[in-house]
Automatic annotation (TrEMBL):
Belongs to the peptidase M14 family. Keywords: Carboxypeptidase, Hydrolase, Metal-binding, Metalloprotease, Protease, Signal, Zinc. It holds the Pfam family Peptidase_M14. GO terms for molecular function: metallocarboxypeptidase activity; zinc ion binding. This is Peptidase M14 domain-containing protein. InterPro entries: Peptidase_M14. PROSITE patterns: PEPTIDASE_M14 (PS52035). Residues 51-336 form the Peptidase M14 domain. It comes from Anopheles quadriannulatus (Mosquito). Residues 1-18 form the signal peptide. GO terms for biological process: proteolysis. Its cofactor is Zn(2+). Transmembrane segments: none annotated.
Length: 338
């Protein structure tokens, strides 16, 4: 498959110096923030669809939702980051056996992915009657699997990796190259350089954050019907494999799931998302979460690259991109769950 002029956001290797135009509160501690005091908050105190919430605000909002709607949702801590922050999943519709697992923002700078996960949580809890098909699934949504990196983007907006120290005084690993399926393949020279933004780490699953996602996949692989890794940017829906041009097993089924998502996006926004493998659209990448997900037996594993306008988006686009993400994921879940 030949594609001219493709620029996949998560493959960008340019280094950019960025000075934030807002203040960063360095007094916020790097601690477990699941204290009882947060349960006194009301969800109405937050504006999750109007601003880019901080890590602290996000987990407080999630806790407030659980406190107000305990019959609809539950916050589940699934791991910790290098700097000690909780990695929390929001579990919605606790009864259905079929699960949809959505992860966003493994690459720290991809704020539209994070806000789209927030939008999914918001809608499926506060406006659940608008999404009857979603009610047949249990949703597990992780908006901040890389909380340290995300908070660091308040200082260096285009930071991509986590914040774990590496050799040669470097910092961070590209979490989406750190999964233990075909990690050992040395497909891109820069992926072995700790100073590059696509550094894959010293070993597979060297990072707490990637192990957190892999543990959940392994523990629930028999019940997850759809895994979606929300990323930016480029307007693509990617299917396995990332590491090779060879076809993955059950490619026709995976393509049908991806086409359901693309069709839903067209209905929602009149935008066309290209479907394909990473190897076809750009170049192969080893150690991705999508490939690992498929390897451990999850029925459908997909990457959605949202937006065509880069990493820095306006708050006014939070809802439109969230609507695209939810429409696509719900349609793919229905297809995958057949």
């Amino acid at each position: 498959m030949l594609v001219i002029g493709v620029s996949l956001g998560f493959l960008t290797l340019a280094t950019v110096n960025y000075r934030p135009n807002f203040a960063y509160n360095q007094s916020v501690p790097y601690t477990n923030l699941q204290s009882e005091s947060f349960l006194t908050h009301s969800p109405d105190e937050f504006k999750p669809l109007d601003i880019f919430m901080s890590y602290n605000e996000t987990i407080q909002w999630m806790a407030a939702l659980e406190a107000k709607y305990p019959d609809k949702c539950k916050v589940e801590p699934i791991g910790r980051s290098y700097e000690g922050r909780d990695i929390n999943a929001m579990v919605i519709n606790k009864q259905p056996s079929k699960k949809v697992f959505v992860v966003a923002n493994m690459h720290a700078r991809e704020w539209a992915a994070m806000t789209s996960a927030i939008y999914i949580i918001h809608e499926l809890i506060l406006n659940s009657n608008n999404y009857p098909e979603a009610s047949t699934f249990q949703w597990i949504v992780v908006p901040l699997p890389n909380p340290d990196g995300y908070m660091y983007t308040r200082l260096e907006r285009l930071w991509r990796k986590n914040r774990a120290p590496q050799q040669d005084n470097a910092t961070g690993v590209d979490l989406n190259r750190n999964f233990a399926y075909k990690w050992e393949l040395n497909l891109n020279e820069e992926d072995d350089d700790p100073h590059k933004e696509t550094y894959r780490g010293p070993s597979a699953f060297s990072e707490l954050e990637s192990r957190t996602i892999s543990d959940y996949l392994n523990q629930n692989s028999n019940s997850i019907v759809l895994y979606v890794d929300l990323q930016t940017f480029g307007e693509y829906i990617l299917i396995p494999w990332s590491y090779t041009k060879d076809s993955a097993p059950n490619t026709d089924f995976i393509m049908s799931v991806a086409h359901a998502g693309a069709k839903a996006i067209i209905s929602q926004s009149y935008e066309y998302y290209v479907i394909g493998t990473l190897s076809d659209l750009a170049h192969p990448v080893s150690g991705s979460s999508m490939d690992y997900c498929y390897f451990v037996g999850v029925k459908a594993c997909i990457v959605i690259l949202l937006t065509n306008e880069g990493y820095e988006i306006a708050p006014s686009t939070i809802i439109p991109y969230g609507q695209i993400a939810l429409a696509a994921v719900q349609a793919m879940a229905v297809k995958a769950g057949e």
